[in-house]
Structure formats: structure tokens, C-alpha cells
Design a protein that fits this description.
This protein has 327 residues and is α+β, with helices and mostly antiparallel strands. The protein folds into two domains: 183 residues, Beta Polymerase, domain 2, CATH 3.30.460; 125 residues, no CATH class. It has 14 helices and five strands.
Length: 327
């Protein structure tokens, strides 16, 4: 049991550790999601001191340290609602749950109301960070679709900040009506993704890029240019005669050459001097770099021949330089 003043003082003292716990948890989920081929964005945060104070006062908690359970938070944003259950199952498998998930999607009696479907999981944070009492920190994980995340962030700014003026009921109703559009958007995105996955001409390049992107996220969470990836992967697909088992071959290559890949990304990839200062080695900051490195290792002449007629030779020269092979 702690007073609000004691809880605040403790939070100020432990906030750096709580932030570290949240980052470690997010990184662990990001790696596991990539290996499970779940397309998602994972972010983390520690509640800032002002938010901690406001929540303790607004909720009038008697024991704020124990009752404020989102001191460390992780948000997982997936592409569409079809990925919610696989992501929830991944969290259950990879982390230690504290209580049952809070899942409002199928709540009885909710079908006739417009509301934000919460999907929150309380877990023990991943890693070695512990509080002054020696206990590991808890972390609240929110799982949302891209559309729901947009709505939740927008509505939170307008409706849920402590204020002396209540939000007019017609404004609140208007905001909640948007939930219907969110549901439609999610369904159409899922339908589109599944339809494209079944299209033979599009599926081949998309599958290659998605596989490379999943593996790439185990090395870095750097954002990449999707339009550039699609252009390059269309050429790379021609350099892979048998694609039926290529996903497994690429994954095996990444594991066997992980040390070499880590060095290449460190020296030439996102955050490197070559990338930030000189503007070269652009493809080393893209997920298709994994396919390029693999093809340079196993089918260099085939890749060269196809590349020459389709893409700037300087790009391939840079990648060969980064991988330490001659052309």
C-alpha cells in the first residue's frame, strides 16, 4: 500500500527502468512476430510523470502504484482484423500473462452498440528490469488494427483527457459513429490482402517481399520505401528459378550468415555513415537486401544478367561492395 505522494516519488525514481522494460518487451515481440510472419508495427512507452499524476488524481486511486497498471506499455498495430487473433496467441505464447486478456470483440450485448473494441493483455515485461521491491515490471499490451489505432488516438485526444468541460453528447456520438467505418475499412483491407495473395502474378513478388521484410525486422525496425522494394523485387523474382522453397532457403541463409548480415547492416545499412552522410548503399536499408545478398552468394551471374537490363548498375555494385564480393 502506498500513498499518492509515495507512488509519485517511486515512479520518478524508477521511470528509466520502466521505459527500458517496455523497450525490451517491444523488441522481443517484434522479433517473434517477424519469425511468425505477422505483419505489424510494435512501439513502446513508459507513462510520463505528468500522465501518472493526472491518472492518479482523476481516478482517485487509493493505491496508485498497484492500481495504475499501464506504467509500461506496448502497442501492436496489425494490418487488418484477421491478424488480431494470431497476434494475441503470439503474446500468450511468448510472455507471462497477468490475469486474462481484456477482449471486448465478442462481448455479449455489444453487437448493437458502436464502441471501441478493446484488446489488452497484461504481462510481465520481458527482460531483466525489476523494481525497488525486486519484482519484475508489468506491461500493458494493446493490440489494434491500423484503422482502429487511428480512431483510438484521435478520439483519445478529444474525449478522454481530464478536463472541466464535458464533451457534448452529439460530438461523442459522431466520433463513435466512425467505428462503423473502421469496421468496414478493416474488412475491406483484409479482403484485399487475401485477394492479392491469391493472384498468381502479384502473389509471387509480394510473397518474396513479405518474406524478406519479416526476416529484415529481426535485424532492424527501420522503415523502408515500399515502392522501391516492389520495383527491385520484381527483378529479383526473375533471378529465382524455383520459388517453391525459396522462403525456407532465405530464412536458412539469414540464420547461417547472421553475423555477416549484422556487420553489413551496421556498416552500410540504416544509421550507417554510408547511408546517412553519403546517400549511397540505399538498398542496404531495404528488406530486399537479404535477397540480393543471398543471390550474390549463390547465383551472382544470373542476378547480374537480369539486373543490367532493368535497374541501375550502381545499385548492384554498391550491394556487392557491402557484401564483399566482386562483380
Amino acid at each position: 500500500m502506498s500513498t499518492p505522494e509515495e507512488a509519485l516519488e517511486r515512479y520518478r525514481r524508477e521511470q528509466p527502468r520502466i521505459e527500458r522494460a517496455a523497450k525490451l518487451t517491444a523488441a522481443h515481440i517484434r522479433r517473434r512476430a517477424a519469425r511468425a510472419r505477422i505483419n505489424c508495427e510494435v512501439s513502446s512507452r513508459a507513462k510520463d510523470v505528468r500522465s501518472f499524476i493526472l491518472k492518479a488524481q482523476h481516478k482517485q486511486y487509493l493505491n496508485p502504484w498497484e492500481q495504475i497498471t499501464d506504467k509500461a506499455g506496448v502497442r501492436i498495430v496489425v494490418q487488418h482484423q484477421g491478424l488480431l487473433d494470431p497476434t494475441l496467441n503470439l503474446v500468450k505464447d511468448e510472455l507471462t500473462l497477468v490475469g486474462e486478456p481484456e477482449d471486448d470483440r465478442g462481448a455479449p450485448g455489444a453487437e448493437d452498440r458502436l464502441q471501441y473494441p478493446r484488446l489488452h493483455v497484461q504481462v510481465l515485461a520481458w527482460g531483466d528490469q525489476v523494481g525497488d521491491d525486486g519484482r519484475p515490471y508489468e506491461c500493458e499490451i494493446q493490440i489494434r488494427t491500423e484503422a482502429t489505432d487511428l480512431w483510438a488516438r484521435m478520439s483519445h485526444k478529444l474525449m478522454y483527457k481530464p478536463t472541466s468541460t464535458a464533451v457534448p453528447s452529439d460530438v461523442r456520438r459522431s466520433l463513435y459513429r466512425l467505428i462503423a467505418l473502421v469496421e468496414l475499412y478493416d474488412l475491406e483491407v483484409q479482403r484485399g490482402v487475401e485477394a492479392l495473395a491469391d493472384h498468381p502474378d502479384i502473389a509471387r513478388s509480394n510473397q518474396l517481399l513479405e518474406e524478406a521484410a519479416h526476416i529484415f525486422r529481426t535485424f532492424t525496425d527501420h522503415e523502408y520505401r515500399r515502392d522501391l522494394s516492389e520495383e527491385v523485387v520484381d527483378v529479383l523474382a526473375q533471378a529465382i528459378p524455383d520459388q517453391s522453397h525459396y522462403a525456407d532457403r532465405l530464412a536458412k541463409f539469414a540464420e547461417e550468415r547472421r553475423g555477416d548480415l549484422e556487420r553489413a547492416f551496421m556498416d552500410y545499412g540504416p544509421g550507417s555513415d554510408h547511408f546517412l552522410r553519403h546517400g549511397r548503399y540505399l538498398l542496404a536499408s531495404q528488406p530486399e537486401s537479404l535477397i540480393i545478398f543471398e543471390r550474390l552468394s549463390t547465383a551472382k551471374l544470373l542476378l547480374q544478367g537480369l539486373w543490367a537490363d532493368e535497374l541501375p548498375q550502381s545499385m548492384l555494385n554498391d550491394m556487392a561492395d557491402a557484401w564483399g564480393v566482386s562483380l
